[in-house]
Amino acid sequence: MVTAGVAAVAGPVRAGDRSAFLWGSAGAAYQTEGGNVASDLWVMEHVQPTIFREASGDAVDAYHRVFDDVALAASLGLNAHRFSIEWSRIEPERGQVSLAAIAYYRRVLEAIRSHGMTPVVTLHHFTSPRWFAAAAGFETREGIEPFVRYAEIVSRHLGDLFGVVATFNEPNLGGLLSWGSLTKQLRPIIQASREAAARAVGADRFAPLVLGDFRIQTPIIIEAHERAYDVIRRETGGKVPVGLTVAVNEERPGAPDARVEAKLEDALLPWLRARGDFIGIQNYTYSLVGKDADLPNPEGVELTQMNYPFAPEALEGAIRMVARHTDKPIYVTENGVATEDDTRRIAFIDKAIPGVFACMRDGIDIRGYIHWSFLDNWEWFAGFGPKFGLVAVDRTTFERAPKPSAAHFGRIARAGLPGDLRP
Fold it and tell me: Any catalytic annotation for residue 170?
């Protein structure tokens, strides 16, 4: 039974209604909360060999500090907050639902609502319960039903407070990375690590989504998404827009024989065709596409801590590329830069956001811009090294320290859309 929330659920933004444009920042449960010991990636971090530079551990202790974090985000002038629900907290063992975890995430949603912000909720941000990965995860169709059941549980208990829901975060990432050289280099260690994880949990196979075979997973996850879409819409009375987010580089031809469309078919187009109320675009840079693989970074370009070309203008190109292939509304659900130099983050923001406005002026239906990330956090395989955050975190005390970019982005959010784009 859904209990009453602290605020009415925001309905889907109507086409052309820019009064509800979302300005927000983002984080993910596994990267920020700490202590997600029932998750598949917790296993992968603690076997040998591992592809993780360092273990997530306490992450940035957001599990205990989330209410202060939400208040800080609201104080910047943001009207949206993106976070994820950790499936392994909701269902740490198959069929065992934690009412305490449901109550916790309800308090998080209530806190976001109480500060006048729209919750942008991700149900699967790369991590699954370890029992799910030990049953082959999304590399088997038997993985569909457990995910749909999880989506039904959280929607039934929490859906009255949802604002915007993404079923999956970047399920296309495997296809995108398959065109780069790093995945090919890491394939042997990924396989050895998966085998070590399977032995550690006593399973025949261990299949985390983010380290799985994308060609097997793609049709399975799309079906899981579409079935979850129906469940979430039903449980929320059709009042909440439901979609998924995709990793999108601006794909630039890097050679005369570049096969951009072939890469898009591997990495993007199946996800744009899936049913949904919106597409979340997550862009950080561009790629130079060759015949069968991406080309190396050009010599002399500025690189970020993730070894990406510093390219805030790529967001506009990525939006236009997606808009050529779908008429779904778009949210920019991630955009940002990994750098220790906060002046470069400010410069990135100041060039990326005008590209969003230019797309809107040309009639592309964009509903919001959410910066990645709110906090410096644990960045998957790269550990705690890359700094994406608007807010720094002391790794010993967990004290939060807003950077100048936080106030800068907040001023942009408070100012809202330019006059010619306002309703």
Answer: yes
**Confidence check: pLDDT of 265 > 70:** yes
Helical spans, DSSP H, in 159-213: 173-177, 181-201
Comparing C-alpha atoms, which of 396, 405, 418 is closest to residue 76? 405
Question: For the whole model, what pTM was predicted?
Answer: 0.94
| Phi and psi, residue 409, nearest 5° | -65, -40
Q: Phi and psi (nearest 5°) for 158? A: -125, -10
Summarize pLDDT for 85-139 with one digit per residue, the tens.
999 999 999 999 999 999 999 999 999 999 999 999 999 999 999 999 999 999 9
Do 17 and 360 meet the contact criterion of CB atoms below 8 Å apart?
no
Query: Residue 300: left (phi > 0), alpha (psi -120 to 50), or beta?
Result: left
User: At what angle are helices 144-158 and 99-114 packed, to 10 degrees?
Assistant: 50
CATH of domain 22-415: 3.20.20.80
**Cross-strand pairs, 164:** 120
What residues contact residue 215 under an 8 Å CB cut-off, 6+ apart? none
Q: Tens digits of per-residue pLDDT, 342-389?
A: 999 999 999 999 999 999 999 999 999 999 999 999 999 999 999 999
> Could you tell me if 96 and 132 are in contact, meaning their C-beta atoms sit under 8 angstroms apart?
no
Whether residue 319 contacts residue 364, with contact meaning beta carbons closer than 8 Å, is answered with yes
The answer to whether 230 touches 267, Cβ cutoff 8 Å, is no
Helix (H) or strand (E) holding 124: strand 118-124
CB distance 277 to 365 below 8 Å: no
As given in the structure block, the two tokens for residue 373 are: 């990330």
Name residue 251's beta-bridge partners.
287
Give me the DSSP letters along 232-299.
HHHHTTT-S-EEEEEE--EEEE-STT--HHHHHHHHTHHHHHS--S-EEEEE--EEEE-SSSBPPPPT
Asked if 278 and 272 count as a contact pair (C-beta separation under 8 A), the reply is no
Bridge-based pairing of strands 400-402 and 391-393 is antiparallel
Give, for 155, the enclosing helix (H) or strand (E): helix 144-158
Supply the angle between the helices 314-323 and 342-361 in degrees, to the nearest 10.
30
Please pick, among 110, 139, 170, 250, the residue that the annotation labels catalytic: 170
